[in-house]
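Co-fold these.
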Amino acid sequence: MNICVHSIGINEFPVDKKYTIKDIAQLAGVSKGTVDRVLHSRGKVSEKANERINEVLKEIDYRPNPIARSLKNSKVYKIFVLLPDPKEDPYWIPANEGIKEAVKEFNPFGVRFEKFFYNPKDRASFLEKANMALQATPDVLLMAPVFHKESLEVFENCQNKKVLVALFNNYIDVFNNKNFIGQDLHQSGRVAASLIDKMQPQKCTIAILHINEEAHMRQKVNGFKEYFEDKKSSLHPIITYSLNAENLSLFKNDVFDFFEKHPKISSVFVTNSKAHLLIEALKDLNRDLSIVGYDLLKENITLLENGKIDFLIHQKPKRQAYLGVVNLAEHFLFGKPIPAQNLLPIDVITSENVIYYKD
Amino acid sequence: MNICVHSIGINEFPVDKKYTIKDIAQLAGVSKGTVDRVLHSRGKVSEKANERINEVLKEIDYRPNPIARSLKNSKVYKIFVLLPDPKEDPYWIPANEGIKEAVKEFNPFGVRFEKFFYNPKDRASFLEKANMALQATPDVLLMAPVFHKESLEVFENCQNKKVLVALFNNYIDVFNNKNFIGQDLHQSGRVAASLIDKMQPQKCTIAILHINEEAHMRQKVNGFKEYFEDKKSSLHPIITYSLNAENLSLFKNDVFDFFEKHPKISSVFVTNSKAHLLIEALKDLNRDLSIVGYDLLKENITLLENGKIDFLIHQKPKRQAYLGVVNLAEHFLFGKPIPAQNLLPIDVITSENVIYYKD
DNA sequence: TTTAAAAATGTGTTCGAACACATTTTAATA
DNA sequence: TATTAAAATGTGTTCGAACACATTTTTAAA
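Predicted complex below.
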């Protein structure tokens, strides 16, 4: 048994030939059927044959051709995606784009997609669309589990129907060891804190502002405060405040009052994508603030480029959704393992590197 | 001709069926051979048949199955990689890792790889290894073209032998419209400048330090200076200085002299991965500096975490190399287009988000 | 030793696209 | 109308893995 090893450069995989089941059969002196039985340990193989085949397999380090395998198992996989309607909240536009991109990429491979948009302000709509999706029994349901309680219900439903679940954007810890793609919010709070810290070495006051926020963001605040507690050298007073921007003129008054009451504030951490609203409201108040916010909305990008916002933290909604789909598709098509927990890097965006993240 | 369109959710690709050439043949009332001739415009098809087939193709928006196509064209593709020996310069360790990862991923698909390490201090060794590689006529040569003149020579050689070329890490503009993966150095200088600007709102002095640097980095310096020229509000004096760290005690003296001569310097931009050497040399000199450097070397990461370095710019050598290989492999296997110019984002790293980039 | 059941091995088809080759149809010429 | 080249169309095989099914060999019971 002479296996040609040929190498010119430096190579861990020097074999130039592509071994197939037929080759293995020949090398072991059996038929491809027998090799197949060994490969899938379906039994009905004599000790002797089994041994000889395993020897060959080891020697040539056989890996089945994923392309041939995929063609044989040619099946139309159904990947359904459940996410908030981008028309209801523009935050979800990039996520939708990411999905579109992945769909375009994997449609020719015979993967079929179906999108279900729910109203992010309506829990019932979430459940309704989820059930709609499950009725058509997809192979997997990829969802942004915005509503905690309802998501658990959907999760149970999926388990009953033996539909796989994958998550993006929000993590729900009860779904343990389910595929999740997103960011660590606690750590992103720490990143925000470190940025403000570098801009404000003096002992100035820092404000944490929640604008139209519903709670979720506690993790970010915890991370933010933790950073300063860990780093005892720089003790800044921190003031947390929640604002409602549904009515813009009321919001503006509220902002004015707040900053009048706290003249020492020199940096602001806005815990979601609404930093642009704050700056708009502050326009007439001539105050020099360092601002760290979230998300690359058009308005935020403009303000970043104008120097009104110092840093934005990029949550990469597009990439989250894209990777969510890609991981699943490649799993079905080529048997790649689905990463259990995929925490995406927390990207720090300034006026100078924003071009690379715009899309 | 009735094609079933079935939709539950919101779907741009609603067709649940997987159309094959056979299906098209049936729908158009011809044989698969004729369909094949139309698909590849090989002629020998009557007007009538051509028309009917095209009608069907349009109606079902036919995309050939890339898996089947790839299996048929089953060929062992050879991708050779030419890069500096990581043993000679640790900068190249991550690049090598990225290649290893991609190799592992695509070996089962029947893509064969060969790596050629050259000595990054020896132009002759670069040429030698390049020629070695080309003698085995790979399908493509992916290289880090560290030596400009020699790279052009290799490029010509490749063209003669009809071997594709792809680049990573360095861009050489004569290779226009060749696949390149890397970063825009000019813009990365601007990013560094914006970071220092945010940390130093006062009119302090900034130093740009080249440590063991050979020239390349002019682009970064240009970008850096341009940022401050554009933003006329903050005029900082900028001092540029080159240092040699081959002999560490001489280097230390040099550093001391420099900072004594310029007591007003409060921020430093180190144009390559050698920021750790500067800080080591500065240890005894108790001076509070804001430092921006490059690359996630172990030493740099430690200093970042200790707060000695404020920001690192990540050039992502691992990802560069990985993507370089992946793009080529997917091109050969599934006919994906090779992106002509892939400028990777310029990532800003702090103590708090470094964990995500470590690997 | 014959026979039946069990165990082991081998053969053939499928997946979808690509292409070589075989066959039929059409048009042009005698 | 018969003949023949050209044009059009159809058939069959290949890629590699997977699995159903057919055949052979071995073992145990009659």
